Amino acid sequence: MFSTTTTFLHSCFLLSCLLSALSCVSMFSGIETGDLEKRDDLFPQILRDEAVARLYELGKEMQITSMCVSFKVSDGKNYLERTFLSPASMRAISLIRRWMEDAGLRTWVDQMGNVHGRVDGANANAEALLIGSHMDTVVDAGMFDGSLGIVSAISALKAMHVNGKLEKLKRPVEVIAFSDEEGVRFQTTFLGSGAIAGILPATTLEISDKRDVMIKDFLKENSIDITEESLLKLKYDPKSVWGYVEVHIEQGPVLEQVGFPLGVVKGIAGQTRLKVTVRGSQGHAGTVPMSMRQDPMAAAAEQIVVLESLCKHPEEYLSYDAHCSDSTVKSLSSSLVCTVGEISTWPSASNVIPGQVTYTVDIRAIDDLGREAVIYDLSKQIYQICDKRSVSCIIEHKHDAGAVICDSDLSSQLKSATYSALKKMEGDIQDEVPTLMSGAGHDAMAISHLTKVGMLFVRCRGGISHSPQEHVLDNDVWAAGLATLSFLENLS
């Protein structure tokens, strides 16, 4: 339990209970009823109507006009933003706990802000299935990234609760809403799932945000006095866990292109995040001759162009040796992506040659050896450019996560559950359920250090994510919930 934050969370919980007691106008616009609505085994009121309404509740401002109450689950004024243990995250915790309890689950919040809801089923001593996703968001986010996996899991368990099957589950099932996957505030990902997986080193507590506030101090501000010992205690015993399943929007266009609402994930690309600092000689923009400049901006610009070229054409840069084979380069050609997402300069004035430029590099690939080869070659190129331009360079590794291959048995079960769900909704299914690779990182990457993992992707419009334009069809939310329900009902 998360007893040190009970007082703070209690006030949030009372507010959420007040809101639930009121007859709020639903933010969900219903679909026309038909024959499917009459099927008891499809649970449209829970898996579609209520699930969609809850996604909107987490993703939009909810207003109760009769009391003039505004209840926002966002830290942004006119956009969705919910970062690690922010005020909006605290409100989200209250909502999610209430929904879990409504589904018949026992709930608690741990010292890293993860929300847990558990049912023991018929055998409380059996290894548990973990299922969930993250409740934090990027800045100016969409409402489905992360939240869909949490809501789908809760909805499926509520359907089992309603039909009296919850206590008949063959093993314990625990839904977890992870507190931080995106890493927006502290620029380090998987704070929530990493703690549970036991891969979060104690030094993580010393990481600072842009205002130089360390994680451990921020936690203290929220009445959480965490220590290295208590952090280690958050790790689950691998012997107590059977597996982990995550439902998530695809964040890509493949499912929409093939016309399928769901797809099974076969693996997740490995990721590396670098921070590159280039230091030169600060000077007056009008008086320092071009030939005498040590301009870190020009050096950084050249490095970024080299990065783009390397990642577009790795076969032209990487040398073939024992660590970088022909198959590795071919894999990189189809999966490697590189991004510079943030650049800052000092002193950042239009009439000053900057003294320092800092930028981030995000590198992702399915092949870990290939990704390491890219990082090695890129680092070499960066230092060469710095030497040539008489500036200095520092390359810091901010995040590394190896590629994850999903468990074949879990993937097979998820595929069967998908067939079952879509057959109930649409009749006979002729097409094969798509199998996809994920270029985006997910909590499953962290949990893979604890247990076997499986993932189910849900179609999203235009493949758009990390944007207010992110959208999932109501019936696809339904399909995700129904597939999750089928998976749970057939747990071994």
Relevant terms:
492 residues, alpha+beta, Aminopeptidase, Alpha-Beta Plaits, 2 domains, nine-stranded mixed beta sheet, five-stranded antiparallel beta sheet, 14 helices, 18 strands, disordered N terminus, Peptidase_M20_dimer, signal
What does this molecule look like?
With 492 residues, the protein is of the alpha+beta class. The protein folds into 2 domains: 314 residues, Zn peptidases (Aminopeptidase), CATH 3.40.630.10; 132 residues, 2-Layer Sandwich (Alpha-Beta Plaits), CATH 3.30.70.360. 36% of the residues lie in helices and 20% in strands. The chain contains 14 helices and 18 strands. Strands 3, 4, 5, 6, 7, 8, 16, 17 and 18 form a 9-stranded mixed sheet that branches. Strands 9, 11, 12, 14 and 15 form a 5-stranded antiparallel sheet that branches. A two-stranded antiparallel ribbon has the order 1-2. The longest helix has 22 residues. It is globular.
SSE blueprint:
Elements (H helix, E strand, L loop, with lengths): L5 H16 L22 H16 L1 E4 L4 E4 L14 H16 L3 E4 L5 E5 L8 E7 L12 H16 L10 E6 L12 H7 L17 H7 L6 H6 L7 E9 L4 H5 L3 E7 L1 E10 L3 E2 L11 H17 L13 H10 L1 E3 L3 E4 L5 E2 L2 E10 L2 H22 L2 E10 L2 E2 L2 H19 L8 E4 L4 H5 L5 E6 L15 H16 L3
Parallel strand pairs: 5-6, 5-7, 7-18, 8-17
Antiparallel strand pairs: 1-2, 3-4, 4-6, 8-16, 8-18, 9-14, 9-15, 10-13, 11-14, 12-14
Helix pairs in contact: 1-3, 2-4, 2-14, 3-4, 4-14, 9-11, 12-14
